[in-house]
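Design review, sub-item: ligand-bound model
Attendees: FS, YL, KQ
YL presented the inputs for the adenosine-5'-triphosphate complex:
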Amino acid sequence: MSEITQLSLTRIWVTTKHINHKCTQMNTDILNNKESFQILEIKDLYVNYGGIEALQNINLYINNGEVVTLIGANGAGKTTTLRAISKIVNPRQGKIMYSGRNITRRQAHEVVQLGIAHCPEGRRVLARQTVLDNLLLGAYIRSNQTEVRNDIQQQFEMFPRLAQRRHQLAGTLSGGEQQMLAIARALMSKPKLLLLDEPSLGLAPTIVREIFSIIQNLRARGVTILLVEQNANLALQIADRGYVLEAGCITLSGAASELITDERVKKAYLG
Ligand code: ATP
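KQ shared the predicted structure:
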């Protein structure tokens, strides 16, 4: 597997406004004028499913080391945004830049090799395979088996419940344990950018807290995270910045600390 050893990161000045001409997009970004590195930049992205326009003129960026959250109602286009980045779907128009490379037309396995891992909504663990086999599957692009074994050990340290259940079939794990396995499996490809889709979905509050503390732990280890989450309150509490998606358009973006107090966000997503 060829992993990026040196990121050719694009040095940019974060622009003060991101105006989406088709969808009105307001920005309350406090990072204005801060010099930073972008690990991901999406420009004017459109995605269609047949005749359905799921994403329209999406513009977003993620700085290296950030946790950025995408919030929005059901069907707003959050999952589609992640699928476009991990190349599960192909954009109709627009550009996706990752670490200075244009990945718009790359294949799914290529973007994994470049350092992007997608932890999908609904966990999607292989139910009839053991925890260990699921983890090995996550490392399928890697050839150094010693490193893979060491990393499995690391996952077991981070997720002790998985260590205790390493020979258990994934389908017999609880929902929270399956979510942990899905995250651990994604981490087995050694991603620089982790796309996390609805990690709290259907989980009890104590497990949700555990999962969110793991996300914070990952960020402290230097993993950049794009988090899709229906629990906007929790997501905005741990994120640096956020984007609000409505009917396939970004309508608002900015620092999470500002979005969480924004009256429009409060009314629509924070109950
Ligand atoms: P949710 O929070 O319910 O998961 P979402 O914000 O992630 O929603 P998407 O799953 O990205 O939204 O869906 C965006 C739009 O694209 C929706 O109108 C949805 O019906 C449509 N869509 C998603 N996947 C497909 C598909 N495979 N075929 C056709 N339409 C699709």
